[in-house]
Write a structure and sequence with these properties.
mainly alpha, Cytochrome Bc1 Complex, Chain D, domain 2, two-stranded antiparallel ribbon, 13 helices, 4 strands
Length: about 300
């Protein structure tokens, strides 16, 4: 903040406090043509309801003075007058850092003890999975749902269908370093009819009802454009994160329209990295919880 705006804020803040003090003093003094204390003011309602000139209780008046004194003390101790930091040196970032450090001192030893065990062992430890579940609800449920069932574009973690592999180390690597899954758009290369044909062939891979003639034409396109990632049998490639097209499990939806849209326009899925945010020990425990969900 510039010195000009800092000074402007400070002047306005102090001026408002002084104005409140002046207003209280002015309002508490008798004024010309004002009824004497205890007399009626001349205001009357409902024939016999009259207003009397009675001052507010003294403790109420002193309460106003107390708030003024409190505000001045507060502004001397804490930031509030532009760039002035206050005599205590308090700041939001400083308090946040203190709380984070306190949390690390309290909880990091607990996570470090869990980290000494391998993920498969922790997945069978009730206490470990309870802590892992809390981590999951805090950091993962927004995308994958509280039951880990996922949503459109966000994988179900409670089955055994994994784009990058379901072994413990792959799960941990995914959480630590993130993943980027990219399906390129093919409409420009194979045309509108090619998209329809390949769609029918993809549908046929999972044994669903399809147009046989279009699927045959689509297979020729698939063998040229798609086998590099999905394999000749359509079972995918976990090294690339390419999904298995034969199991009828779909990340974005399995209707013909959605499959055609995926082929034509492509898809990009991003799993953000959590290494710097959570740290390896927490990710280790979180991985154990997710590992325990497989096949549920």
């Amino acid at each position: 903040m510039s010195d000009f705006w800092s000074g402007w804020i400070a002047v306005i803040s102090i001026a408002n406090i002084l104005a409140c003090y002046w207003l209280i003093k002015w309002a508490s003094k008798p004024h010309a043509n004002e009824a004497a204390q205890g007399d009626v003011t001349g205001h009357k309602w409902d024939d016999d309801l009259e207003e009397y000139n009675n001052p507010m209780p003294r403790w109420w008046l002193w309460l106003f003075y107390f708030t003024i004194v409190f505000s001045l003390v507060y502004l001397a101790l804490y930031p509030g007058l532009g760039n002035y930091k206050g005599t205590l040196g308090w700041s939001q970032t400083g308090q946040y850092d203190e709380e984070i450090q306190h949390a690390k001192n309290t909880y990091d030893p607990i996570f470090a003890e869990f980290a000494k065990k391998d993920i498969a062992t922790l997945a069978k430890d009730t206490n470990a999975t309870k802590v892992g579940q809390r981590l999951f609800l805090n950091y993962c449920a927004t995308c994958h749902a509280s039951d880990a069932g996922g949503a459109r574009g966000f994988p179900n973690l409670a089955d055994n269908d994994w784009l990058w592999g379901s072994d413990a180390e792959n799960i941990k690597t995914t959480i630590l370093d993130g993943r980027i899954g990219a399906m390129p758009p093919w409409e420009a290369a194979i045309g509108e009819q090619g998209v329809k044909d390949v769609t029918q062939y993809v549908i046929s891979l999972s044994g669903r009802k399809h147009d046989a003639a279009m699927a045959t034409a689509g297979k020729a396109q698939f063998d040229v454009m798609c086998v590099a990632c999905h394999g000749a049998d359509g079972k995918g490639n976990k090294l690339l994160g390419a999904p298995d097209l034969t199991d009828n499990i779909w990340l974005y939806g399995g209707s013909a329209g959605v499959i055609a849209q995926t082929i034509a326009k492509g898809r990009t899925g991003i799993m953000p990295a959590h290494r710097d945010f959570l740290g390896e020990d927490k990710v280790h425990l979180l991985s154990a919880y997710i590992y325990s969900l497989r096949n549920q």
